[in-house]
Specification:
The chain contains 17 helices and 19 strands. The longest helix has about 40 residues. The protein is of the alpha/beta class. The N and C termini lie far apart (about 80 Å). The strands form 6 sheets. The protein has a 5-stranded mixed β-barrel with strand order 1-4-6-8-7. Strands 12-15-18-11-19 form a 5-stranded parallel β-sheet. The protein has a two-stranded antiparallel ribbon with strand order 3-5. The protein has 3 domains: about 190 residues, Nucleic acid-binding proteins (OB fold (Dihydrolipoamide Acetyltransferase, E2P), Beta Barrel); about 200 residues, 3-Layer(aba) Sandwich (Rossmann fold), CATH 3.40.50; about 70 residues. About 35% of the residues are buried. Helix content is about 40%, strand content about 20%. A hairpin with a 4-residue loop joins β13 and β14. GO terms for molecular function: chromatin binding. It comes from Capsella rubella. One of its GO terms (biological process) is DNA-templated DNA replication. It is found in: Nucleus. InterPro entries: MCM_complex-bd.
Length: about 600
């Protein structure tokens, strides 16, 4: 049996057309299928399970867009920033007695004439951006991939041309014949298929929100054969699909440095293909932290606790050094870094563990805060920082807002992906007055910290969106704006020399953090009685303890266990929790 007739990497549309012909011969009926998949997904689904296959597919970004070829297979990793609704297109048409398809194409073509049979299908539009705060270590090295891809493109170009010519020979003959008869094939732009019948239903691409940075590459992803419930706003997704864009126009715009800001802004509002490439998605997958790791994805299942213990010790030593040998602060920082929302009860996000390090001022923040921020960027995939000053709160756009004039969701600073780590620096906060914007922003931040929800403003109504963000606050005294789950006085004893970390060690720490966060956790029935008894005793000793404080202790117990690679709480680790809590309260006296 021979190999595939088309190379899926360099000629995915050829594979689509070839599989369409095969499906027709097996009884597939475009007139009744409503665009349902005819076997294309099976051709490309293996890429996500075969590391050697997916590693050959270029990742679309601001660098690779300069050398990837149109109509080739690419992948885009990003966050769904806006969902633009559905669009209609001419998915299939009859050329004489033969069905042909325009699926996964920007431009629909079909022969003119009243006798032409055409099927109008539907696809969804997602506006995707690079994940806000994505750190450099998560990006794949592009030069090696570029060379490999260009070699493959060159090797397959001649074969692709020969097979395409054979495949489209009859189509070209029909086109020539139709041209002689005065009825050439018509090329139809997106949405034109239904412009006369239901023009109001076709979304008008009138504007896009600004990119996260000047060199960030955004992408308009077109989704086929996927339930609407499968993808939601702010999901981090890897899309594998066919790239369409105008490389010449894009290269031309790179040299136009003299264009005025007003013109650039007007062009971006129109979402031109030379600025926002289109990706026709074949298959996709939601991304977790392990998908951004370059080595082994996760540590082995917790059958070898010694591995976890060794990596934990080395990471703890590193964190303690960064924090001026404050070992207690390092312990709480590790628990904070391992926290994640794993459940919700009413308005309570179970599993969150925000941390407020106090007794920091401008001087100490410039040393310890800067070092810790840089370290977290090298350990975590997504990190952001917000300066908590009066000026910032009074002027920043933290919450996303719907612009009905552009019919777009305009992003706010707090429209971020689950798993993002957020540092809030309150050390430069001075006395002042918050205006209405500042009050709204302060409430948004407080709601995010307490409930792990962000309020989206849709002008006529507001909607809360659940999220999962780790929040670390630096302040001189206990923060009044951000009431964290844990408040800990920071007590460094010295400023240590920065330790040089090898790439292998950094990757091991990243794998460790990702693995620990992915572990399940439970408390055995026997130990549960001990825990309940200790919690009752703690509440009798300190009447100020509320249900949230008791929940926090259970969250700390979970984090202690998984930090050692264990999925069941032990008595030793529960006693460690109680001891850490005792030491923290001593510092607060």
């Amino acid at each position: 049996m021979g190999g595939p007739a088309y190379d899926c990497l360099t000629n995915p549309l050829g594979a689509v057309r070839f599989s369409f012909v095969n499906a027709l011969s097996s009884g597939y009926d475009p007139a009744s299928s409503v665009g349902k998949d005819w076997g294309v997904l099976d051709l490309f689904r293996h890429y996500f399970s075969d590391e050697s296959a997916i590693s050959q597919v270029p990742i679309l970004d601001s660098s690779s867009i300069n050398w990837v070829q149109p109509n080739t297979l690419v992948r885009f990793r990003g966050m769904i920033q806006d969902m633009l609704g559905n669009e209609f297109y001419a998915g299939a048409y009859k050329d004489g007695s033969t069905w042909r398809t325009n699926k996964y194409c920007d431009v629909s073509q079909f022969p003119e004439g009243s006798s032409t049979e055409m099927q109008v299908w539907e696809r969804r539009l997602l506006y995707c951006i690079p994940v806000p705060g994505q750190n450099q270590w998560t990006e794949c090295p592009s030069q090696e991939l570029k060379n490999r891809f260009l070699d493959l493109t060159g090797q397959n170009r001649e074969k692709r041309v020969r097979v395409d010519e054979e495949m489209t020979d009859s189509l070209e003959s029909s086109t020539l014949e139709a041209g002689i008869n005065g009825s050439p094939f018509k090329k139809m732009k997106v949405g034109e298929a239904t412009s006369s019948a239901s023009e109001s239903q076709v979304p008008q691409i009138s504007g896009i929100p600004p990119a996260t940075s000047t060199d960030a590459l955004t992408c308009l992803v077109k989704i086929y054969d996927s339930p609407e419930s499968e993808l939601k706003l702010n999901d981090v997704v890897e899309f594998l699909g066919v790239l369409t864009f105008d490389p010449i126009a894009m290269m031309d715009t790179d040299s136009l440095d003299v264009i005025s800001d007003d013109l650039s802004e007007a062009e971006s509002v129109q979402m031109p293909s030379r600025k926002v490439p289109r990706l026709h998605c074949l298959v996709h997958r939601k991304l977790e932290t392990q998908h951004f790791l370059h080595g082994s994805s996760l540590l082995p299942e917790p059958k070898s606790p010694q591995i976890f213990k060794e990596i934990r010790e080395s990471l703890m030593k590193y964190l303690s050094g960064l924090l001026g040998n404050d070992h207690i602060a390092a312990q709480f920082l590790l628990l904070h870094l391992l926290s994640k929302v794993h459940g919700r009860v009413d308005n309570v996000a179970v599993g969150k563990l925000s941390l407020n390090l106090i007794h920091l001022n401008k001087e100490s923040m410039s040393v310890f805060g800067t070092r810790l921020g840089d370290a977290l960027k090298s350990l975590l995939p997504f990190t952001q920082s917000i300066p908590l000053t009066i000026e910032y709160l009074n002027t920043a756009s933290l919450g996303p807002k719907k612009d009905y004039g552009l019919n777009r969701l305009m992003p706010g600073v707090l429209q971020i992906a689950d798993g993002t780590h957020l540092i809030l620096d309150e050390t430069e906060l001075q006395a002042g007055t918050l205006n209405s914007v500042g009050v709204e922003n302060a409430n948004l931040l407080k709601n995010l910290l307490e409930c792990q929800k962000v309020e989206y403003d849709f002008q006529y109504y507001k909607m809360e969106m659940a999220t999962d963000v780790q929040m670390l606050i630096f302040s001189e005294g206990k923060s009044n704006i951000m009431p964290a789950d844990l408040v800990l006085p920071f007590q460094p004893s010295q400023v240590n020399q920065l330790e040089v970390i090898t790439p292998e060690t950094a990757e091991a720490w990243r794998c460790y953090l990702a693995t620990c966060k992915s572990l399940s956790h439970s408390i055995g029935q026997e130990l549960q009685q001990v825990v309940e008894k200790d919690l009752v005793a703690a509440r009798q000793t300190d009447r100020s303890l509320g249900s949230q404080d008791l929940s926090r202790l259970l969250t700390m117990a979970r984090m202690i266990s998984v930090s050692y690679g264990e999925t069941t709480l032990s008595l030793e680790h529960w006693q460690m929790v109680l001891e850490l809590e005792r030491l923290r309260k001593e510092r607060l006296k």
